Fold these 3 entries.
Entry 1:
Amino acid sequence: MRYGRTRPGDMFIASSAVVMAEFVKLLASLLLVFKQEGSLQHCFMALYTQIWQQKVDTLKVCVPSFIYLVQNNLLYVSASNLDAATYQVTYQMKILTTAIFAVLILRKQLRGTQWVSLVLLTVGVALVQLSSSDKGTTSTDAGQNRLLGCLAAIAACCCSGFAGIYFEKILKGSDVSVWVRNVQLSFLSIPLGVITSFFNDYSTITEKGFLFGYDAYVWYLVVLNAVGGLLVAMVVKYADNILKGFATSLAIVISTVSSVFMFGFVITFQFVVGAALVIGSIFLYSHEPKKPAANPMGNPKDHGDHHKLCLSGRQQHVPSVELTLKRNAVSHTKKSGY
Ligand code: C5P
């Protein structure tokens, strides 16, 4: 994203790239619903009953759909004004916002170490921000507004936290599949995105066209963002906090190394300390103290497992559900004598 917004030549309209990514996600989600249902007829029926016949439910998806749209536009603003590594580290503040919304909306409880890790995360991001505001961190700072980039990233973090938790609540509160949910998201975000795009960039669009400045690289960016979005949807559904934690910290490392080669980014000691604090806080957040060996007869207190919080505030249903099922199977086996 950073390279796309800073390279020389015709500059594409960021809001149009957001709409096109939504469009690619819609096509991919429709294909996945088709694969899930097995035939075109079942696919139409699933979409008709779960989207058209449940209008109130579809309207509920408007909220994360709109917020994700704002977030995706803000991320372009941030990537245009901050160097890639600083942008990536600052965006990790979404762990903090997700945790806050999980506590407020889902009434989750955080362990003491998780609160400590959130403080470390904030300190780490602050250090990285301050280190990059020193001179000489990047060679392409001209004409950019660091404060705007930083504020856009923080606003995107708020959007990410709220939309992520809200989407999780909707997804886990019903048996509608994640791909049907994504079709719902795209149905709403595409028209909203087109309106936002015309509102923001009316003169450029009417003068030069909606797809002005698109070349293979911009299409690659569009597909990359769309695939990233679909992966987030899968993370909400299948992955656990440790996996997402590894992925997030890896993203910081990859962004930093790429920035050194692509933009001449200079890694300062303060940046290293800040990034290490951010990565460390991610691991601390997802670290769970070892529990005593499971009692095969089951302990009603263990149902508290359901309240474990994932890295981004998402619940780890699968392991605890599996554990509960295994315990039930064991106690059933004992009762029935098999
Ligand atoms: O985790 P994070 O907030 O950074 O990721 C949000 C991204 O994932 C946004 O681009 C959003 O449009 C996308 N997303 C999606 N489908 C979902 C949830 C999020 O495409 N079900």
Entry 2:
Amino acid sequence: MLYVSWNCPSDMASAHHDRAQVDIYEKLPVPFGLVRFGVAPDHPEVKNVINTFTQTARSDRCSYYGNVAVGRDVTVRELQQAYHAVVLSYGAEDSRALGIPGENLAGVYSARAFVGWYNGLPENRHLKPDLSCETALVLGHGNVALDVARILLSPLDLLRKTDITASSLAALACSRVKRVWLVGRRGPLQVSFTNKELREMINLPGARPVLDPADFTGLANAVKDAPRPRKRLTELMIKTALEQPAQETAAAREWGLRFQRSPQEVLPTADGTRARGVRVALTLGGSGDSAQAVPTGEVEELEGGLVLSSIGYRSLPLDPAVPFDPRHGVIPNSSGRVRGAPGLYCSGWVKRGPTGVIMSTMNDSFDTAQAVLEDLQAGVLDVAASREGFGAVGSILRSRGVRPVSFSDWEKIDAAEVARGKAAGKPREKIVDPEEMLQLIGH
Ligand code: NAP
């Protein structure tokens, strides 16, 4: 969701990048995109990358302009006229659709919207998910699926000390959800969540894992020579399945993994008003990463009044002037250079799709920055004439009644959030209404 553009002074052709000027444009008043609105509130250590961003944004050669929606308030062409190079790094702000009947019933939410809701993403602040049922079905076997399952089942005392929004904490306090099934269309050898996240779920206080040992028959042998992360992950699932006590333990809540079940339809209640479960097609798979889920012809109904679709994120095109591959949800590019558009670059999930952790996205952005510098040195970027940068863009925005938010404005919002959180013993209480953010800084 972050927007980066570089303004290189005219004497840059032979000089180094230590003279580059970088302006960052962001749609929301506040920075940090997925780190603020996607990373789970109980994973504060993952948010440390905010410190690196802050250090960069405070540099004399970097400016932050929040509250500017590129594609709406200013076009990419206008940015290209104002800067020598423009890097699109706006991530994946939509979710993949299941494309099955019943997907739009009440009680069905995308995991992306649910995550946005508890993390204070302004567009999801009114979601009010219905948590009045006992069983939730999470469709997908990725880390986002584990995140939402963990938040649904976490003891409130753990969440209370995080930056989860007060309104979602209040809703979770009234939640009746006590059982979460994570449903995958393939088998245990193809789950895409990772070891650390699974272990955290297994160790969640007050919640009992329910894994069927029969799902893992012969798998210890099958992963003997698998890459280490897959081997460790499978061994952890097997160990958990085998260690389960035969009798139910005292845990008030439980969760489990259901494999080889491909969602076919979200089933409505008798009055047709909301979801009551999901019909799944049973599938067969193989042992490799690329094994396909092949339907056996058998189906099964899984009961659950809350259905969270966690099957991946999706980038959207933001300006007709920018090439976009709708099938893969990425900007077509070579090493971050947008195909057919010299001077235009991309980075992050919009460059390579919604996979990988923050570190992989950072490394990916370093590669794109390298491509910009190589093009600068090779003369692909025409820096003979200086460009006005924000001087030009600021006039365009003024003429359209758009008032950007500076980094020091954000620091005021940040201080207000931290102060509000302090009273409740939280690291911050996020402001979820952009209008309130703007009022706070006198816009
Ligand atoms: P993901 O890892 O790609 O997982 C998506 C899941 O949805 C897979 O199990 C996939 O199954 C399934 N799926 C896709 N299409 C489906 C369909 N039509 N029907 C049924 N199932 C379907 O995506 P994610 O969980 O959204 O995570 C995105 C990225 O963020 C990942 O790289 C993840 O590791 C990262 N992340 C990391 C953390 C962390 O480090 N703690 C937290 C959150 C997210 P198939 O494999 O069969 O396609």
Entry 3:
Amino acid sequence: MNFSRRTLTLAATAATLTLGFGTVSAQSYPSKPISLVVPFAAGGPTDIVARTLAATMTKSLGQSVVVENKAGAGGTIAANYVMKAPADGYTFLIHHNGMATAPALYRKLAYNPINDFEHVGNVVDVPMTLLARKDMAAKNLGELVSHIKANGDKVNLANAGLGAVSHLCGTLFQQSIGVSLTTVPFQGTGPALNALLGGQVDLLCDQTTSTTPHIKAGTVKFYGVTTKQRIKALPDAPTLHEGGMRDFEVIVWHGVYAPKGTPAAVMQKIGDAMRTALKDPAFVSRMAELGGEIPPAVRQTSDGQRAWLVAETDKWGKAIRTAGVFAD
Ligand code: MLT
């Protein structure tokens, strides 16, 4: 009798210690709002995914998941912030391919995306689109490439900084047509798309989560999607591949991360809430209408995201070293 009471007490203490919350138990987590940090400006594609996910996870967690935008340095400021945040289950990061490209792009990166975080899982895969301001005369990709080759010194390309997928896509585009354009960096493609809509910049590569409504409404010139196959959200839209840029492919994947050392019980609870959200019909259909696809179940897990990040770091690292694009 004494022995079993002591065993129970020890077990309870161990559970509390494992959680690292002092007197708070696994059952009471989360007991206050959770912050989901977005590494780009509000209104852009990462922000759209984050807010849709946060609202859906809030339903199953019974606590608010609050989106916090910490833009700058192509997403590396936010990743650094979350890496250093308390590992108490109340701060998470949502980020995309930038976690795989930053180690090759930044010579002095302060974190290791694979090893300095706990991995929750991948959330959604999103194609990109190549756009121009509405009054760009070129009617198709061929005409656009001819225009750029003839007037390259007058054409500029917006992006969200080194480490942003808009930068990656724009770099691959310039490489594939053999030009070097003036680039205009913003804190996210939300403000970059606004500048394109206002005619202040000429070109932008951005994700369908932001661009689909504008492509449908004809408020931008549209030249193709960055997947090899056409996408359901824009069935009539050509791909850049079929437009002549053979094998051009950029697919953006978004994933969720926690500071290293976040307790396993918290990771399980947040991971379960995220995977429940990825099955929520409203979340799935909202993502689908914006061109997003839910990744396979294995990538929705911690181990799956880690393995995916390792492979993507290798893939994009090679492409970046070949392109010779670096920051200090
Ligand atoms: C954003 O959310 O603003 C974009 O994902 C930035 C980018 O192009 O990577």
